Amino acid sequence: MNIAIIGKFYTEGSGLHIEETLIEMGHKPIRIDPEAKFLQYKFMGFRGRNMAKTFYTQFLGKIPAIRRIKANKIYKVFKSEKIELSIVLHDYFSTEEITEIKKINSSPIVIWFPDAISNFQKSMFFVAGYDHLFFVDKYIVEKLKEEFLLNIHYLPQCSNPNHHKRVNVNEKEKEFYQCEITNAGNLYPSRIALYKHLTNYNFKMWGSKPSYWLNIHEINKIITGHVVFNQEKAKAFSSAKIVLNNLHPAVINGVNKRMFEIPACGGFQITSHRDAINELFEVGKEIITYKNFKDLKMKIDYYLDPKNDEERKKIMEAGYNKVMKEHTYENRLTQLINTVEVN
Fold first, then answer.
1. Which distant-in-sequence residues (6+ apart) come within 8 Å of 332 by Cβ?
2. Average pLDDT, stretch 139-158?
């Protein structure tokens, strides 16, 4: 099947993982990037690209003439390729643009929205005209289905075993990555609000330094400023005793992709509790969750105790097996394609 992927294709982004998995499944992915090219220039740095992206999305991208230029390039792809399914990875298209695409190509077009409700922004997907809408938070699915009668489905995040996998860590690397607690990604305010209470532990946070306006001196000692992807991320997660995956408060009843990447990389995970986790993992045997700070602190101290190393490793192994069996991109894409074909 020829499947268009409309999204961003940066390192560790879902666009690349989906493209790679579709090839392995025997499909032909057709890459379409809806973002302005200048936003991907590496010389701008992480912070520079973020500022440029904000400027583009808040100002430049709203100018009709500029939006039409980008849309026309996308229409050309649909005219030149025999596309049988399109998977859109964020809220990129307006009603007018989806309508134009369907005039060119009448095959199903779906959105797999990867973010929390706080990132709805303009929420064009409500009226854009997608044939199916997939969301990673059960709360979103339930509310939108009840009130708006949209053709909506729950499709959680997942991992890519080709990149999120156990790797060998030599002694020098172990010394670099080893710590009691770790995580990787962006340091947004809700993470900082929690982490500043955990600086008495040997805590290493991997990723870029926080934004200039987020200079909270209490957490400076845990910030590495070192971005980790793929094998490096696996080394960081597997070298720490605990990977602390605190979910954003706007994730109401869903999970993030980190929840699947951690066990896939051989890490032991403690994460914020959400009821949706009960359908994905067996809590207490494949994953550990916490409900408040007191509960988190108790569980951190318990699993850092050498006496409980065997229990920690057993949970880590069970989590790894569950992810490999049920929570990969192949699992999710098979579900998505079957849902579209059945309907």
1. 155, 156, 158
2. 94
Containing H/E element for 254?
none
H or E element at residue 239: helix 230-239
CA-closest candidate to residue 223, choices 263, 196, 261, 256: 196
Instruction: Give the closest residue to 4 by CA, choosing from 42, 26, 46, 33.
Output: 33
The reply to whether 186 and 149 lie within a common domain is no
Phi-psi region of 270 (alpha: psi -120 to 50; beta: other; left: phi over 0): beta
> Taking the chain, what is the end-to-end CA distance rounded to the nearest angstrom?
17
Query: Which amino acid is located at 5 in the chain?
Result: I
Report DSSP state, residue 207: S
Collapsing DSSP states into helix, strand and coil, what is residue 101? helix
Asked whether residue 107 falls in the same domain as residue 216, the answer is no
In contact, 219 and 204? CB cutoff 8 Å: no
φ/ψ bin of 91: left (φ > 0), alpha (ψ from -120 to 50), beta (otherwise): beta
CA 6, 208, 168, 243 dihedral sign is: negative
Evaluate if residue 220 carries a pLDDT over 60: yes
Paired sense of beta strands 132-135 and 109-113, if any? parallel
Of the given ranges (37-46, 61-70, 73-82, 249-258), which has the lowest mean pLDDT?
37-46
Domain match, 12 and 145 both: yes
Domain that holds residue 335: 2-157+328-342
pLDDT in tens, 253-300: 999 999 999 999 999 999 999 999 999 999 999 999 999 999 999 999
On whether the CB atoms of residues 304 and 180 are closer than 8 A, the answer is: yes
Query: What is the model's pLDDT at position 203?
Result: 98
Q: Provide φ and ψ at 290, rounded to 5°.
A: -135, 150
Q: In whole angstroms, what is the distance from residue 154 CA to residue 339 CA?
A: 11
Main-chain phi, psi angles of 108, to 5 degrees:
-60, 140
- 41 and 143 co-located in one domain: yes
Which pLDDT score is estimated for 342?
Answer: 74
What's the CA gap between 237 and 231, in Å, rounded? Answer: 10
